[in-house]
Amino acid sequence: MVITTLNGYLSLQNPTNAKAATATAADAQAAAQAATQKALGDQIREQVRAQVRGAVAQSGQGVPVPPTPPEAPRTFTIRGPNGEQTTIGMPPASDIIPPQAVDISIAFFMTMAIIIIGLPLARAFARRMDRKSPTPQISNDVSAQLAHLNQAVDAIALEVERITEGQRFTTKLLSEQRDAARQTLPSANR
What we know:
Among the domains are: about 1-60, no CATH class; about 95-130; about 150-185. It starts with a helix and ends in a 6-residue tail after the last helix. It has four helices and two strands. It is mostly helical.
């Protein structure tokens, strides 16, 4: 309240310094709140430490041990519409998840880890194999032999083509002679 009144007085006296005075007053108020909060936090910490020391002194041990809850039977009672009661017993807490489900979950996560790690490794291995298999170099002797073989096959192909042409020509001449002979011979049907 006093700060607000003081700020109002300053703004009437000098409007340019009023903003600076307002900011300074707000900073002072924020610092006072922070100091109060810190003192309160320190006080709470000290109270908690005192209670812990008192509990340790009462128990006679160095470290306080939390109490264990009593073992309660895990049963549920259900009442039907006709007033009949049914009691259902639950297994102990350690047997809630069946071992098969645990095995399946472990297998799933192991499979995922293998896939995540194995897929990049398989790709790298495949790329390495591709790089290692360049086209093999052919020696000069082998290339000369291949060139000679290629020329020989071309020559044989030309000779076979000539033989084929000669056979066609011979077949054509024979068929023309046969047709001419048929025309000159008298037929039996006439």
